[in-house]
Design brief:
Belongs to the EamA transporter family. Residues 23-153, 167-303 form the EamA domain. Pfam families: EamA. This protein has one domain (19-303). The chain has 14 helices and no strands. The chain has helices at residues 4-9, 19-44, 49-71, 83-104, 109-116, 119-130, 138-154, 156-159, 166-188, 196-217, 228-253, 258-263, 267-280, 286-303. It is globular, with a radius of gyration of 19 Å.
Length: 306
């Protein structure tokens, strides 16, 4: 049972996204897409992606942990019954990264992105079966299909190119399932009735242990070069992405239907492509415009009123 102080932290759940929530999701997706280009800049300076992910979790755990300890003096800030689902969410988050980085090494980047974005379907189907008030309607299904078609359009050039493997593709599907399962676990458990900061700390703390071990197992060097680019990149990832944007995500998850929020995640790889064009000089193709139309239309269909 949630305490009185906890209830004051968390407004009553809502059945439909309002303009503020939609705008916040767009900002979050833009932030996550920008991270893709920022990570590539740091890779060019010698910081392996998995090393960056591990250090990001460690750094953000320290920041969020200090904040939670400070707020922990408030009675009821951390309700009982959240430890097991919290650890479970953290393990699923770490499993997602383990499957993702192994899968990416065995398939092409385009195929990896396409198969990873099976995740919103996992959330939508799981929510339909498990979560009251998240039943899928015809428009929601069509919207998800439209948005996924947009991702395929954006990365179609690499879909049938050489370099992929069935094992790599299956691992990326596994990463998508772990990603979706994390969202469903948070939404269906006592974590949905606790402060988003606590949920975030659970996920970060478990991943702060698991990801460095995973990085070392993959032969990644945690002693990354401290160039200006790498330091700025890690600062962005730790403070903006892992601490603030993930907190924003958990705030939204605690208040709105997971399936409607997850539809916005299709924007993330498109923002990543746009950021790569702006920062790294990559070329945008006409397929990108088609992808934006399909994804935007799909998000509207998933969240349309009525």
């Amino acid at each position: 049972m949630a305490s009185t102080s906890e209830g004051a932290l968390r407004p009553a759940p809502r059945g439909r996204l309002d303009a503020g929530a939609a705008a916040m999701m767009v900002v979050l997706c833009a932030c996550w897409g920008l991270q893709q280009a920022i990570v590539k800049l740091a890779v060019a300076d010698g910081a392996a992606p998995l090393s960056q992910a591990a250090l990001r979790s460690v750094g953000a755990t320290l920041i969020v942990g200090v904040v939670v300890l400070g707020l922990g003096r408030r009675r009821g800030f951390v309700p009982t019954g959240t430890v097991l689902p919290g650890i479970g969410a953290g393990l699923l988050f770490a499993l997602e990264f383990a499957l993702l980085y192994t899968g990416v090494s065995l398939t092409t980047a385009s195929r990896a992105i396409i198969f990873l974005y099976v995740a919103p379907f996992v959330v939508a189907i799981g929510g339909h079966l498990m979560l009251p008030g998240e039943r899928l309607g015809r428009w929601q299904v069509l919207g998800l299909i439209s948005a996924f078609a947009g991702i395929i359009a954006a990365f179609a050039d690499g879909l049938f190119a050489g370099g992929g493997s069935l094992l790599g593709d299956l691992l990326m599907v596994g990463a998508a399932i772990a990603w979706g399962a994390t969202t469903l676990l948070i939404k269906a458990s006592t974590l949905s009735r606790t402060a988003p900061l606590v949920t975030l700390l659970y996920q970060l703390a478990v991943s702060a242990v698991a990801l460095p071990l995973l990085a070392l197992a993959h032969g990644a060097d945690l002693a990354i070069p401290l160039t200006t680019t790498v330091v700025l990149s890690m600062g962005f990832q730790i403070v903006i992405v892992a601490s603030l944007s993930y907190l924003g995500w958990f705030v939204l998850i605690s208040r709105y239907p997971a399936s409607r929020l997850s539809a916005f995640s299709f924007l993330t790889p498109l923002f990543g492509v746009a950021a790569a064009a702006l920062i790294l000089g990559d070329t945008l193709t006409p397929a990108f415009a088609l992808a934006m139309v399909l994804v935007a239309g799909g998000i509207w269909m998933v969240n349309r009123p009525g």
